[in-house]
Amino acid sequence: xxxxxxxxxxxxxTNTSMLSITxxxxxxxxxxxxxxxxxxxxxxxHEAG
Length: 49
Known about the structure:
By secondary structure, the protein is of the alpha+beta class. About 10% of the residues lie in helices and about 15% in strands. A two-stranded parallel sheet has the order 1-2. Strand 1 (about 10-15), helix 1 (about 20-25) and strand 2 (about 35) form a beta-alpha-beta unit. The N and C termini lie far apart (about 40 Å).
């Protein structure tokens, strides 16, 4: 994977539950700029089952 054409200090954000954040970072030239997040639906949006 090639890093985006930006300064090495520019953060790269990803929101994923399917891809490995560690795997993405291992392929980057500057892995310290990768920030991985995972957003969840609030508990009030789920039906109790």
